[in-house]
Write a structure and sequence with these properties.
This protein is 66% helix and 0% strand. With 116 residues, it is mostly helical. It folds into 2 domains: 48 residues; 36 residues. The longest helix has 44 residues. The radius of gyration is 36 Å and the shape is rod-shaped.
Length: 116
């Protein structure tokens, strides 16, 4: 079963530089546990400038991830504020005329039949 790994652009550039410096694809493949065909693909991409596009895409992805993290923090903060305000609203709605002391209890009611 083939394994699929993702390699950083820096690693790809390093392998391409070693290849362009005179190392054979066979030696590089054994050293870095890569296929010779993959090394040749990276060399072609580097020649066409596609590895530079991957760097730009990785930078853009990093910027998007940072923006998402900032927005998630903002949503969390706003959620806390909403819960705080809901609780404050519930407290403000409680009747002001209700006794707040447990000793006083609710106001008594007069019965129509008197005590004799």
């Amino acid at each position: 079963m083939p394994r699929h790994r993702r390699h950083s652009v820096e690693f790809k550039r390093q392998v391409v530089a070693e290849y362009l410096a005179g190392e054979s694809a066979h030696v590089l493949g054994r050293r870095h546990d890569l296929s010779r065909n993959l090394i040749r693909i990276w060399v072609e991409k580097a020649g066409a400038g596609e590895l530079d596009q991957e760097v730009v895409a990785a930078d853009l992805l990093g910027a998007y991830e940072a923006k998402i993290a900032a927005l998630e923090r903002l949503v969390g903060q706003q959620t806390l504020e909403i819960e705080f305000l809901k609780k404050a609203q519930r407290i403000a709605r409680s009747p002001a005329s209700a006794p707040s002391s447990a000793i006083a209890g609710p106001p008594g009611s007069r019965s129509s039949g008197g005590v004799r």
